[in-house]
Amino acid sequence: MEFQIPEKVQYIIDTLMNNGFEAYAVGGCVRDMILGKIPEDWDITTSAKPQDVKRIFRRTVDTGIAHGTVTVLLDKEHYEVTTYRLDGIYEDNRHPKEVSFTSDLKEDLRRRDFTINAMAYNPTDGIIDIYGGMEDLKNKLIRCVGDPFERFDEDALRLLRAVRFSAQLEFCIEEETKEAIKAKAELLRNISAERIRTELTKLLVSDHPDRLRLIYELGISKVILPEFDKMMVTEQKNIHHAYSVGEHTIRTVMAVAGSISENRFSSHERVILRWTMLLHDIEKPTTITLGKDGQNHFYGHQEKGAVTAKRILKDLKFDNDTLDAVVHLVRWHDYRFTLSPKGIRKAAAKIGKDYMRLLFEVNYADTSGKNPKRNAEKFKQLEEAKRLYGEMIEKNECVSLKELKISGKDLIAAGFKPGRKMGLILNRLLNAVLEDPSLNDKEVLLNLAKSINK
Questions:
Q1: Crossing angle between the packed helical segments 341-351 and 420-435, to the nearest 10 degrees
Q2: Per-residue DSSP letters for 153-213?
Q3: What is the Cα–Cα distance from 83 to 103, expressed in whole angstroms?
Q4: Residue 431, C-beta contacts closer than 8 angstroms, at least 6 positions apart
Q5: What gap in Å lies between CA 170 and CA 117, rounded to an integer?
Q6: Is the separation of the CB atoms in 274 and 268 below 8 Å?
Q7: Exposed (0-12), middle (13-18) or buried (19+): which is 257, by Cβ within 10 Å?
Q8: What is the pTM assigned to this prediction?
Q9: What is the pLDDT of residues 38-81, one digit of tens each?
Q10: What is the mean pLDDT of residues 142-162?
């Protein structure tokens, strides 16, 4: 089996081999090539020691030299080249206490996480598959290399990576590997929030985020997102719902932003939307009440959910842009649009134009996860809200202070005193324009401001 590998990767492999060393592309890039996908990253493993790699290539960076990794720079691209190694004892379920180098590729592949990531390739030797990775790819299985209990003790993040790979590749997790995950889930407490965030996000933005069920079934969410466990066991006795809070949540995550190939949203928007749906009903379990109508109600879950979402995202060390957007959408996810031009203008003023397209998508996904027998009217109302919003945008109607044809500077120039009262006047002018867009004229607004100021 022969594959096309990038010219520069081939150059590094050839150069190392011409200097008397073994060298292979290794890990995920080999897996992706076999699956017919274009690898995002290319990792190279070699029998050459780090000092040999530095001697052979003119431009290198010591990125992880203690662990045998040297980055080779070719033009503006960089490639990680790592010496075959044996890992010593793992004391923190994350890092080996010490690393020793070996000249045996088999030993290097043995320390890797899953069989499908433990294959090497170069055009001379073809695929090196010692641990059955090809067979597991064929059978669509995620299986640990060797003893799964040992592999998870070495790096507990592998527990979550197993589920993430199952979502990205649409593979099943092999039974013994599953049992080991259940037994070792608590070890995830030793893993940094940043690493957990990265794996959870990759799972969420994949085309199979319904594998969230696995993080519940295998005991992972109990450790990294206990609120999700509560959602999974909270039933919704309500005519608008047919599923538990957790099942509803999973269905909404699946429905939001479409498949990756549809490319309807940027990658950052996709992250925002998927996290919003995961967290939108996070506080339903704590706000559940039984009404006189015999129905469950969840009053205030939106606002309380926004507070909890902010805490979770902060704990996971999210950037502020993503955090602010998700929290905002969680807060407004249940907004009921008034289906009139004025109602849509007021919605856009409250929620913000920057968020309306995303909120419509959230609304669509939320409805998709409700009672299918009662969804038709809700979808119809959503389409009407989107139509009205499109008209508003087409007419370029004002829905914010920055779009008013008059500013604080204009009012000062007309003799108004700066201060709190001026802010109140500007807000009243905006409210007037939301009622009647034709009032958004500088002269008209100035006269209106004078009448308000009397």
A1: 150
A2: HH-THHHHHHHHHHHHHT-EEPHHHHHHHHHHGGGGGGS-HHHHHHHHHHHHHSS-GGGHH
A3: 9
A4: none
A5: 15
A6: no
A7: buried
A8: 0.92
A9: 998 999 999 999 999 999 999 999 988 878 899 999 988 999 99
A10: 96
Q: What is the mean pLDDT of the chain?
A: 94
In the DSSP assignment, the letter for residue 305 is H
Q: Which residues contact 123 (CB under 8 A, 6 or more apart)?
A: 2, 3, 5, 10
Q: What is the dihedral of CA 367, 369, 370, 372, to 10 degrees?
A: 90
d(CA 278, CA 280): 6
Q: Cα–Cα distance between 263 and 270 in angstroms, integer?
A: 9
CA atoms within 13 A on the CB side of 261: 2
Cα(23)–Cα(397) distance, rounded to whole angstroms? Answer: 63
Contact of 119 with 134, CB cutoff 8 Å = yes
Dist. CA 386–CA 322, nearest whole Å: 24
Question: Which among 235, 236, 160, 238 has a CA at the least distance from the CA of 192?
Answer: 160
Rounded to the nearest 10°, the torsion over CA 84, 173, 254, 356 is -30
- What does the DSSP assignment read for 254-299? HHTT--GGG--S-HHHHHHHHHHHHHTTTTHHHH-EE-TTS-EE-T
Please compute, for residue 327, the number of CA atoms within 13 A of its CA located in the half-sphere on the CB side: 17
184-229: pLDDT as tens digits: 999 999 999 999 999 999 999 999 999 999 999 999 999 999 999 9
The separation between the first and the last C-alpha atoms of the chain, rounded to the nearest angstrom, is 85
Q: Do 249 and 369 meet the contact criterion of CB atoms below 8 Å apart? A: yes
Pairing of strands 120-122, 126-128: antiparallel
Q: Which amino acid is at 154?
A: E
Q: What radius of gyration, in Å, describes the C-alpha atoms of the chain?
A: 28
H helix intervals, 317-419: 320-332, 341-351, 353-368, 376-394, 408-413
Burial of 345 (0-12, 13-18, 19+ CB in 10 A): buried
Task: Provide the CA 49 distance to its chain's centre, in angstroms.
Answer: 37
Distance CA 123, CA 103 (A): 20
Three-state DSSP at 453 gives: helix
Local structure of residue 80 (DSSP, 8 states): E
